[in-house]
Amino acid sequence: MERLKGKKIMVWTFMGNARMYEALEKYGDRIDTIGLFSFKVRTTGEIVESGVTISSMLPYINRYRHIKWLLTIANDGANSIFRALRDNTNGAQELFLSELIRLMEKYPWCDGIDIDLERGDDYSTHAESTTMFKNIYNTIKAYDSSKLMNICLPGMTSVNGSVGGENWCVYGDLDPYCDTASIMSYGMAWSGSAPGPVSPRSWLEGIYDYAVTVMNPDKIFFGMPAYGWNWQIYDTPENLGKAYRGTSHTYYAAKYWMTGAYNFTDDAPPQPFIPIVAYWDDENKVPWALPHVYDYMEGRDATRYSYPLLSASYNGRQYLTAYGKQQKLAFGTVYVDHDAMPDSYSGVVSVSNSVTTLGDEGAATYHFTLAQAGTYDVAVKLGFPFWDKNSIHISLDGNEVDFSENRLWWPYWRTTFWTVLKKGVSLSQGTHTITISLGAKGAQFYGFRVCSSFSEEPTVGEAEYTLAPRHFKDVNGDMVGPATGFKLTLEMLRRKADSALVWYEDFRDDNPLPQSYWTTLSGEWSVWQDTSSSMNRPYSQLEGKGQLAWNYNNFSDIHLRAQIIFPETFSGKAGVFIGTIYCCFNYDNQRIELYEGSTLKGSYATSFSKTSAANIRSNPSFYTLEIRKRGNQVRVYSSASNTLRFTATCSDVTGYVGIRSDNKVHCQLLRLGDAWTYEPYERFDVLMPDGAFKTYGRLSRSNCSWDDEFQVFTLTADLEESATRSESISLDYDFFHSDMMPSIQCGNDYSVTIILRDINIWISRIFLGDGDGFSILYYQDVDSLVYWANEAAYRWKLRGMCMWSLGQEDLRLWEWLPKQIE
């Protein structure tokens, strides 16, 4: 019927609870397809009956003839079972196929089979996995061509695009071997993940934008959860006696939290019973709540924060972060503040009020006068703009100090910095002289200060928040607060350490390839920028062929990462190089290859594709390639997760570093890092509301030495960074907790200061809650499910919506869904 186009509903009989049977009794006329979740397959291929009994379902099967009743065969996410069936281990697939026929013979009234096989392997097994589904489909159709086959598929945003590792699944390959497909686009958030929508908008849009291009939309059921999660965020899971923070719940369990029927002290005192109001996440079209949270703030809600912290947003989350460290300076009382213009100079010198640059035999002299004798600090402001412009000699009244910098990763390359010329020096009343002279051509001098007390340190910035806990009204109408005390929880996003940054080039600057920094060794290179963008630094792409390099030919041990985009006309090789070592994507062979000169030193088979001209600027497919050279050992990595592919022994070369391509290629990132030194993205400190100070996040490491000034570490052995630590860092938001704070009282305002020690940490949210328990709760309500059912029907024009699972939903949902029969 045309009125039901895009509005078919599929559910599963997993719950077996009273509400499941109530939904069947009252609303069976709203359901198109039901998967009878009553069958499990073993590694042998044998199928056993388990779960909701078929006998309990027969009254409904006999009553609702319009429903397509499918026998759901599940492996409960066991990879060993999936693998045995796929590989036909000891005849497992053959037995499985015969078992399907046995079941259809046993239950001749069934309309077909629903295959729910999860936890397959990676993309390398996709052909064998597809063949397994083909064999299942052909077996069912050979038995009875009228029998239907539904397949349950993981959420994929592309080939190799599973967030859960289910890359065996290729939608386009499976499309011929099913009558319908239920995409299980739920579970992005789960018990062990950071709190959030079970099915966030960004994930859903990525899945279905892709799915409709490679599958018949009339076959696709849009998967939505009827359940939610309640994540406890007042302590670590191990201290709570749990493996994970989250506890799953139905709509009605969420309702009981909202109405104050539950609490975190076993639904009994001492924690009060407090009704709460839910929030509506308009980005993801889902409700959420904060049980027993007395105040919370997003990162951007800081009453003050200091540079280099910046406010940013991602998928509706407003956070603070810093992308680089800055010098934090203090001068005390400044007695002399002198700019860069000298009183005299000789040799090749470029002078101005802002900067003096030394060339061949360059020297410059500055005079300053003190009103009285005393002990002073003298600080100078310098700039070493490139690796060969890294030295200058400076004297105070004839006492010379040499300033130079040879660290490849040094954070002040391409910027200015202050440093001590003399600390606590006794200077007489009257005139004194500072002289600068050539160390390396191109070194820059910006001036000096004579002051009472100079100090400097790298800083990532700090943010201060004001929290205002107030009493809540409990179920009895009494104004209440925590019985024991408050706890503060910080939601932060940390990352694993990366090579200490030498140069980050995304080609977004106004002058993206200045000749002072870059050289074209061969071919032609240019930068495209999105001139229509209103962004300060618009999206850009490097494009060209030949060799483009940083204008410095003495690189040795480096870490180099590139994000390569293949236009539709591309053929041949493209990648990155250092000297005669070349690491590339060989498009024609679909391999990553490493060469020294013309000698192939190693390779890794993978897959990559071209981007059409229509998408090359707006939606390109990019592929990450990187090498780490340490002496004569070269490691090759690829993918967004920086996966080590192979290691090879090469000559210990030096030379230029850059990008190389046989034919025109596009690149959106070149990142140069140190091969041995790493920058962690993990530590922060907190000044608590009760005045306590606590440090979080720093991991214990071995086989490395620390630079305490810049908070970086250098390996002392040729290892992977992961081998220096036993702890891991979540790639998701994580939670850090204060001790119990009994002195904090409702009715007062309190200050919290977060001091970041590392860059690339996100300050996401902070929560002040009842120390006996507080949480973040997400659930699905009628508005959420109806919204996405309409998107499935009208935006993507799919078959309809499938929902996991019957009996978990708000039963009022069915009043808003169309009857499937007249």
Question: Briefly, what is this?
Answer:
This protein has 822 residues and is mainly beta. This is Glycosyl hydrolase family 18 protein.
Task: Walk me through what this model shows.
This protein is mainly beta. 12% of the residues lie in helices and 41% in strands. It has nine helices and 54 strands. The strands form ten sheets. Strands 34, 35, 36, 37, 38, 39, 40, 41, 42, 43, 44, 45, 48 and 49 form a 14-stranded antiparallel β-sheet that branches. The chain has an eight-stranded parallel barrel with strand order 1-2-4-5-6-7-8-54, surrounded by five helices. Strand 1, helix 1 (18-27) and strand 2 form a beta-alpha-beta unit. Helix 3 crosses helix 4 (92-106) and helix 4 (92-106) runs parallel beside helix 5. The longest helix is centred in the N-terminal third of the chain and has 18 residues, at 126-143. The radius of gyration is 32 Å and the shape is globular. The protein starts with 7 loop residues before the first strand and ends in an 18-residue tail after the last strand.
